Amino acid sequence: MPGEINVGLMGLGVVGGGVAAALLGRPEELTKTIGLPMNLKRILVRDPDKPRESNIPADLLTTNPEEILTDQSIHVVVEVMGGSQPAARYIKDALSAGKHVVTANKEVMARQGPELMSLAQGNGVNLLFEASVGGGIPIVGCLMKELLANEVQSIRGIINGTTNYILTRMANHFTDFHQALAEAQDRGFAEADPTNDIDGMDAAYKLAILASLAYHQQVRPEDVYRQGIGSLEAKDFRYAQELGYAIKSLAIATRDNGAIRARVYPSLVPLDNMLAKVDGAYNAVEVDGDLCGKVLFHGLGAGREPTTSAVVGDLIEIGRKLGTGGRPAPVTQLDGKDRILPIDDMESRYYLRLNAADQAGVLAEIARILGEGNISIASVLQKDTDQAAQTAELVITTHPAREASVREALRLVSNLEVVREVNNLLRIED
Ligand SMILES: NC(=O)c1ccc[n+]([C@@H]2O[C@H](COP(=O)([O-])OP(=O)(O)OC[C@H]3O[C@@H](n4cnc5c(N)ncnc54)[C@H](OP(=O)(O)O)[C@@H]3O)[C@@H](O)[C@H]2O)c1
User: Fold this and answer.
1) Which of 110, 200, 336, 401 could form a disulfide bond with 216, CB atoms 3.0-4.6 angstroms apart?
2) Which residue among 41, 92, 106, 206 is the active-site one?
3) Each residue of 102-154: pLDDT tens digit?
4) Residue 12 C-alpha to ligand 1 middle, in angstroms?
């Protein structure tokens, strides 16, 4: 049992800066909470000459990862560099060297989580990753501990703050997508290259982590169906509100009859649903378990302080175990054998918006194609007639229908001479 716990920090950016400030700024409180002093021994950075916060002693900085990975006195490595490599390699090397690891890296955990968890188990060390999903929301630990007694039926969440900020702006001010994105970038809610957020990749990484933990088997990012938010227009929010819905980018994993389906897409959510009220950069995750029922987690999904809360929480957990000589608890075995299916056979209600000739018989032609695909229309709104172009916008909602049938029907509809463009297809999550 060590007399003190030494930490090697890899990364001193948004999250690393917060973690360093917490470790250096309140040592007495941490010692009291853990039962042992926790020291920040070394910090890996890329550029040693970058201006840093003044309270970071310059002699802690290094550009050589081996000064952390091979230092026998370092018990815990905190990886907050981001990206897949060299982060994944450093995590592996640290675990192989018998060091505990805390990481905030969703990409590495989504792609290599099961392998790294086995490596940690084999080496008798902890690998904790609370900060990889939902920033300050304690969802990962709950799926690994408090909710373990449940068979999880579904996970449904808003787990990307950037897209939620953009969609909230579009909904509240009917702002155009590109303007809302520019505002998100100005206010620091979106990165200079927001592709991973906009196209749903970031949420797919996080959903892969949550679904793997919930269903005890590896769900890979590639298993997650993705639709980004780039096709949404301000008018979609107007029409959705008229129909009684908000539009949210939802990450959903369900298990039904031994089959898992995972998807990230913008969805219509009834205005009185809790998820419809999650606005701005906030995140929320609803877990539906057979014993606990629906449990909702809500909070700040990113940012220095919330993410520091998650990382330092993991550090405290490891510190306490080290302090009492406790071995790491067995990790959830990700050896489930359920089928992971595409969403083709999924049933949902749909919202579709299309632009068609403003003439008699158009709706009948569209309805015929939908009917032949067993898709029954629930409502039709005719909107925004363009007198000059002699076109009108049609917003159609359907009763539950099979995903693949809806897509095939839309392909046929888009080939109709009277249809100028199929603008949007969204699922309705009642
Ligand atoms: N930001 C958030 O709100 C948030 C929330 C949840 C999870 N996360 C996750 O936390 C991780 C870190 O995010 P962040 O926003 O803190 O990133 P960041 O601000 O870009 O900081 C990255 C840090 O890692 C260092 N670094 C990067 N590559 C390196 C390399 N090859 N060798 C040595 N040092 C390297 C950089 O060094 P220099 O300082 O010298 O450039 C920098 O200090 C990511 O996995 C991210 O997904 C972030």
Assistant:
1) 336
2) 206
3) 999 999 999 999 999 999 999 999 999 999 999 999 999 999 999 999 999 99
4) 7
CA 13 to chain centroid = 20
Q: What's the gap in Å between 133 CA and the centre of ligand 1?
A: 15
Q: Which atom of ligand 1 is nearest to the CA of 52?
A: 39
Instruction: Looking at the CA of residue 86, tell me the nearest atom of ligand 1.
Output: 31
Q: What is the pLDDT of residues 21-79, one digit of tens each?
A: 999 999 999 999 999 999 999 999 999 999 999 889 999 999 999 999 999 999 999 99
CA of 81 to the centre of ligand 1 (A): 4
By residue range, what is the domain housing residue 379? 347-428
Q: Where residue 331 falls among pLDDT bands split at 50, 70, 90? A: confident
State residue 393's pLDDT score: 94
φ, ψ of residue 205 in degrees (nearest 5)? -60, -50
Has 206 been annotated as catalytic?
yes
Are 164 and 127 in the same domain? Answer: no
357 forms beta bridges with: 391
DSSP three-state, residue 141: helix
Give the per-residue pLDDT at 190: 87
Query: Probe ligand 1: pick from 14, 101, 109, 283, max atoms within 8 Å of CB?
Result: 14
Give the CATH number of the domain where residue 276 resides.
3.30.360.10
Would residue 253 count as lying in a domain? yes
| pLDDT confidence bin for 332, thresholds 50/70/90 | confident
**375 and 240 in one domain?**
no
Average pLDDT on 233-246 reads 97
Distance 77 CA to ligand 1 centre (A): 14
- Ligand 1 site, residue 300, Cβ cutoff 6 A: no
221 upstream amide cis, omega within 30 of 0? no
Question: Which residues neighbour 145 within 8 Å (Cβ) at sequence distance 6 or greater?
Answer: none
Instruction: List, in order, residues 6 or more apart from 189 with CB less than 8 Å away.
Output: 161, 162, 165, 281
Whether the CB-CB separation of 220 and 110 falls below 8 Å is answered with: yes
Separation CA 418–CA 214 (nearest Å): 47
Instruction: Answer for the pair 248, 183: CB distance below 8 angstroms, yes or no.
Output: no
* pLDDT tens, residue by residue, 203-212: 999 999 999 9
Residue 255 and residue 155 in one domain:
yes
What are the distances in angstroms from CA 191 to CA 187, 195, 203? 10, 9, 15
